[in-house]
Amino acid sequence: xxxxxxxxxxxxxxxxxxxxxxxxxxxxxxxxxxxxxxxxxxxxxxxxxxxxxxxxxxxxxxxxxxxxxxxxxxxxxxxxxxxxxxxxxxxxxxxxxxxxxxxxxxxxxxxxxxxxxxxxxxxxxxxxxxxxxxxxxxxxxxxxxxxxxxxxxxxxxxxxxxxxxxxxxxxxxxxxxxxxxxxxxxxxxxxxxxxxxxxxxxxxxxxxxxxxxxxxxxxxxxxxxxxxxxxxxxxxxxxxxxxxxxxxxxxxxxxxxxxxxxxxxxxxxxxxxxxxxxxxxxxxxxxxxxxxxxxxxxxxxxxxxxxxxxxxxxxxxxxxxxxxxxxxxxxxxxxxxxxxxxxxxxxxxxxxxxxxxxxxxxxxxxxxxxxxxxxxxxxxxxxxxxxxxxxxxxxxxxxxxxxxxxxxxxxxxxxxxxxxxxxxxxxxxxxxxxxxxxxxxxxxxxxxxxxxxxxxxxxxxxxxxxxxxxxxxxxxxxxxxxxxxxxxxxxxxxxxxxx
Length: 499
What we know:
Helices cover 58% and strands 16% of the residues. Helix 2 (14-66) runs antiparallel to helix 5, helix 6 (230-280) runs antiparallel to helix 7 and helix 7 packs parallel to helix 11. The two termini are 42 Å apart. It has 3 domains: 6-171, 2-Layer Sandwich (Beta-Lactamase); 230-312, Signal transduction histidine kinase, dimerisation/phosphotransfer (DHp) domain (Helix Hairpins, Orthogonal Bundle), CATH 1.10.287.130; 320-498, Histidine kinase-like ATPase, C-terminal domain (Heat Shock Protein 90, 2-Layer Sandwich), CATH 3.30.565. It has a 5-stranded antiparallel beta sheet with strand order 2-1-5-4-3, with helices on both faces. Strands 7-9-10-12-11 form a 5-stranded mixed beta sheet, covered by helices on one side. Strands 6-8 form a two-stranded antiparallel ribbon. It is of the alpha+beta class.
């Protein structure tokens, strides 16, 4: 059993499959071609013998009729001719009359007997026939003997020639030996060619394996290059793209860990400084203690917001997260979001306007989508100027729902537009910390929209304002793979709750 498994494992290797394919591709056509050559040689030899026997027997037939040999088979001249032909052919000659009686058998075996054979009977009807006996290696030719040269003349008998074909088999045997030698030589040549081809074919795979091992072990890898053939170059291109993405993900992960550590450490450091300051003061007034405690409470709130945003982001990035999809009145949803944000806008002196073009119903996860739009509206308010405005518009066509959040606030520099959805990235760090931003809001927003199979685009000009365009399908389309993962996650949660 173990030997069978080892053999099966070896057959799964590309190198062995390539070698076998090349060997079979070379040896099978060679074998078929050699067999067809031998077959053609045998058929051609038989056809030549048939033609020669027919021509020689035509001469004998004329003499047999002239001397009425069918009636008197004692003619010495005809007997001599028949015996000579018999010796040449290494077989026997039979002369049969129209009653299927054997008038003459050069071997003297069947003389006087009646020969009932299909070919002899058909030849009495005027057909010239031949039959090759593979088992005994004889060629039998039957030729009708007519009273005249006319093809329509009555048939008076049949001349049967049995020809030994041993010489043909000897020739075939002689040709088979070099054929087998050629087969062996070709096999060795193909084996060497197959081994060389297999080695060069799998070389890119080995190179890729080494690159993956280096990457897995933490070593830097520059990717694959300078491979032997176009397909390998294409494979290397895909591998290099994948490797670049993996390195980018790793760099992003390290940056994320660093940013999380920094963001969580900053409030703790501030609280530590405040606590140390209070402890170092003797007889400090109550108002100072209250002020320090308020600052510490503010830092705790900031820490809590960072942790909550991190949890929201992790939950949205988690594979198999379930979506609570329902048909929602988008007009009422957007109005409720603006109602919650309006107090913040009033404190900032920012005008908040909703523009709805038509009633819109959309299949969404209300909680996740509300979080995404709330983040966009809050950012438009917080990063605005006193007396500014924020316009939110809602529209739809036959397939998509469109939500646009536009403001005339600070704007975003062009070199930062590609990075604003990165976790913890801030355009203006000092202003973000003043208003309590964590740098996670837009990352959460983008993930929530992607979970709805939608997309978000941004256009901005520094000092002029920013516009976010959100588009999601009116009908939520369930990805079969995501649906299986989500159902499995629900099953696991139910099992755990049952325990």
